[in-house]
């Protein structure tokens, strides 16, 4: 009888400034456990981490997807109170398995099983370091806003500047606004930026009525967004 391989358990010490490149550096090592993923556990220890940028969050989201498909457990350990609050405010604490003060809180949501029933379509276009979300259909709650969050978090793996182009969006459920504001808050606190362009009159009027324009820059079209918004944040 073939002898069973020992389970793999590895701790990765997160640097003071945690970026997407740091995650990718360890991703290959982690995914190599696919030869024997049973009981494999990889722990990212944030004890010495002072700053996490949005690219690191995006890379962790992508790595979580890969690990789940291969039966590998990924745990975030010793994250700071500020980072935990950011995760809680944006719903990320339900996506990641987190160990805090010796207690492990398992992920509650499968981020990659959120697209069913949505009437929202998102195509991504990359211009340099900017990701443009070409949105069409209906931004409905909760399936549309969940799908939007899924695609947004995955995009952070490649870009920290995101433009939501809404020219093809016919309607926007007001309940979905919290998902946009949550992702905007996540970007702002992790060295990224977000803006909106091309919304139709009804959607734009709702944004202005609710004061969303005071929080997220809104432009008439992509050209204005690229010219004014990008030059503001380069």
Name the average pLDDT.
87
Total DSSP E strands? 12
Tell me which oligomeric state these chains represent. Answer: single chain
Order of adjacent strands in the largest pleated sheet: 1-3-5-6-7
**Terminal CA distance:** 61 Å
Taking all Cα atoms into account, the compactness measure Rg is 19 Å
Low-confidence stretches: 1-5
Content of β-strand: 25-35%
What this model shows, in words?
The protein is α/β, with parallel strands linked by helices and 234 residues long. Helices cover 36% and strands 27% of the residues. The protein contains seven helices and twelve strands. A five-stranded mixed sheet has the order 1-3-5-6-7, with helices on one face. 38% of the residues are buried. The N terminus is likely disordered.
Strand and helix layout:
Blueprint: E1 9-13, E2 17-18, H1 20-31, E3 41-45, E4 51-52, H2 54-70, E5 73-77, H3 81-90, E6 97-100, E7 103-105, E8 120-127, E9 130-139, H4 143-155, E10 161-172, H5 177-188, E11 193-197, H6 201-209, E12 218-219, H7 222-233
Parallel strand pairs: 1-3, 2-4, 3-5, 5-6, 9-10, 10-11, 11-12
Antiparallel strand pairs: 6-7, 8-9
Helix pairs in contact: 1-2, 3-5, 4-5
Brief overview, please?
The chain is an alpha/beta fold and 234 residues long. Helix content is 36%, strand content 27%. The chain has two domains: 9-105, STAS domain (Transcription Regulator spoIIAA, 2-Layer Sandwich); 120-233, 2-Layer Sandwich (Transcription Regulator spoIIAA).
Features:
234 residues, Transcription Regulator spoIIAA, five-stranded mixed sheet, 7 helices, 12 strands, disordered N terminus
């Amino acid at each position: 009888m073939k002898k069973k391989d020992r389970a793999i358990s590895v701790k990765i010490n997160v640097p003071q400034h945690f970026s997407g490149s740091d995650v990718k550096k360890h991703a290959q090592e982690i995914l190599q456990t696919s030869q024997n993923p049973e009981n494999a556990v990889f722990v990212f220890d944030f004890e010495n981490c002072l700053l996490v940028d949005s690219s690191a969050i995006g890379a962790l989201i992508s790595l979580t997807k890969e690990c789940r498909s291969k039966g590998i457990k990924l745990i975030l350990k010793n994250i700071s109170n500020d980072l935990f609050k950011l995760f809680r405010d944006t719903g990320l604490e339900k996506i990641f398995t987190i160990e805090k003060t010796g207690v492990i809180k398992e992920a509650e949501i499968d981020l990659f099983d959120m697209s069913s029933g949505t009437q929202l379509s998102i195509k991504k276009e990359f211009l340099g370091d900017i990701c443009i979300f070409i949105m069409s259909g209906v931004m409905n709650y909760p399936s549309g806003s969940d799908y939007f969050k899924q695609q947004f978090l995955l995009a952070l793996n490649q870009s920290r500047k995101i433009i939501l182009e809404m020219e093809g969006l016919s309607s926007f459920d007001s309940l979905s606004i919290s998902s946009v504001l949550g992702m905007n808050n996540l970007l702002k606190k992790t060295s990224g930026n977000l803006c909106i362009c091309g919304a139709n009159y009804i959607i734009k009027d709702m944004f202005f009525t609710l004061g969303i324009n005071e929080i997220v820059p809104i432009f008439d079209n992509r050209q204005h967004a690229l010219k004014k918004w990008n030059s503001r944040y380069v």
